[in-house]
Amino acid sequence: MEITVTVNDRDYVRDVEPRLLLVHLLRDELGLTGTHWGCDTSNCGACTVWMDRVPVKACTVLAVMAGGRSVRTVEGLEGGAGELDQLQVSFALCHGLQCGFCTPGMLMTARWLLDHNPDPSDGEIRESISGQTCRCTGYENIVRSIRHAATAERSPR
Ligand code: FES
Ligand code: FES
Cα(134) to centroid of ligand 2, in Å? Predict the structure, then answer.
């Protein structure tokens, strides 16, 4: 089945099997391997991307469902000139990652949170990432990173 999907502001036309998942379209057909695939149970959240600006787990979405829609992946977080998103900077500064496997999903979820709530409480941050699993950090530095990014984005430059 032929679909046209916009990913990170670029249109792609692909002939896909109806059973193909969005996470595999992104990784295997489009080469966007920043979106990770960590489970077969829709639990880990490593595959989180935005579809029409709403976070979704890309392993729960069929590629054909993304036809005619707009998808943003972690590769689309950086600015046009290649500068890092503040969250990426804050995760690096605050040690918000170790192996990095969960990081793309964390970043996409946290970006959505800060776009909708620029000054979240720690409780709101923890709730927002409750669908993401990290096996390394104990979450503390992830919360610290998101709080750091929120503060930096609210500060006058
Ligand atoms: S790969 Fe999608 S939730 Fe784990
Ligand atoms: S940094 Fe390793 S799973 Fe989160």
Answer: 5
Distance 59 CA to ligand 1 centre (A): 5
The stretches of 8-121 forming alpha helices (DSSP H) are: 22-24, 86-93, 103-116
Q: Write the CATH number for 64.
A: 3.10.20.30
Give the model confidence (pLDDT) of 8-67 as tens digits: 999 999 999 999 999 999 999 999 999 999 997 999 999 999 999 999 999 999 999 999
81 falls within a domain: no
Domain range holding 120? 86-154
Read off the pTM: 0.96
Task: Looking at the structure, tell me whether residues 69 and 18 fall in a common domain.
Answer: yes
The token pair at 66 is 């993304």
